[in-house]
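Dear H.,

Thanks for agreeing to be a second pair of eyes. The structure we're designing against is below in token form, covering all 221 positions.
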């Protein structure tokens, strides 16, 4: 069972999402929270696999709560955070990824998308839609090159792993990367796993941030 905690300041949203997720045979809604502070307390008590986190909440917003949750525990013990967004909050997308979020979900997304998103994030994958990737690119395009750190952290990667990371940063799926490099999809999965391990990253979302922050991939490429 995938244990889910829902954090949103609107009671109707919490109840609606809760009813939808609870109807799935593999999902268990263990609790909810009306603000980021409550979400942190509930997560520590209930040990969810996934926290569905709104950004704009009173007392403590979703960004601050995500930083606290991700920093609370080491490695796989940390819950994965799925951010609820309207996608018009461009400034928050990049900051949420840096805070440790594993993905984004539109608040008005179809019910099936919500269920799929929770399963994807719980499985350890990142839910990073092309629309989010474009916003990330726009964010980095607006920054002077001098603000980006040198890519010394990428020295541990092999040339092929570096190539795979570039494709990840461009929003390519494993299947698309496999086709571009003319290799098996399982080989790509192995490369992705090694990249995340060498760079101490949780998922593909963080890999995208590192690729652009380090200057490995430039906006507009």
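And this is the sequence the design step returned. I haven't edited it by hand at all.
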């Amino acid at each position: 069972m995938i244990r889910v905690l829902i954090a949103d300041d609107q009671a109707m949203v919490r109840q609606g999402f809760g009813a939808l997720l609870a109807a799935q045979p593999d999902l268990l809604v263990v609790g909810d929270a009306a603000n980021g502070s409550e979400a942190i307390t509930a997560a520590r008590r209930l040990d969810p696999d996934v926290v569905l986190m709104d950004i704009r909440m009173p007392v403590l917003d979703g960004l601050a709560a995500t930083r606290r949750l991700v920093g609370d525990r080491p490695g796989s013990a940390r819950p994965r955070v799925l951010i609820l967004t309207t996608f018009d909050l461009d400034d928050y997308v990049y900051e949420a990824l840096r805070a440790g979020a594993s993905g984004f979900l539109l608040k008005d997304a179809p019910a099936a998308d919500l269920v799929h998103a929770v399963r994807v994030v719980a499985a350890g994958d990142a839910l990073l839609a092309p629309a989010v990737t474009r916003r990330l690119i726009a964010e980095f395009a607006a920054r002077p090159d001098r603000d980006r750190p040198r890519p010394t952290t990428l020295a541990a990667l092999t040339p092929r792993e570096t190539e795979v990371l570039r494709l990840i940063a461009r929003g390519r799926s494993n299947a698309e990367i496999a086709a571009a490099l003319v290799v098996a999809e399982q080989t790509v999965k192995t490369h992705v796993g090694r990249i995340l391990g060498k760079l101490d990253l949780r998922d593909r979302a963080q890999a995208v941030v590192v690729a652009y922050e380090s200057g490995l991939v430039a906006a507009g490429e």
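Two observations from my side: The two ends are 41 Å apart (CA to CA). Residues 86 and 108 are 8 Å apart (CA to CA).

Warmly,
E.
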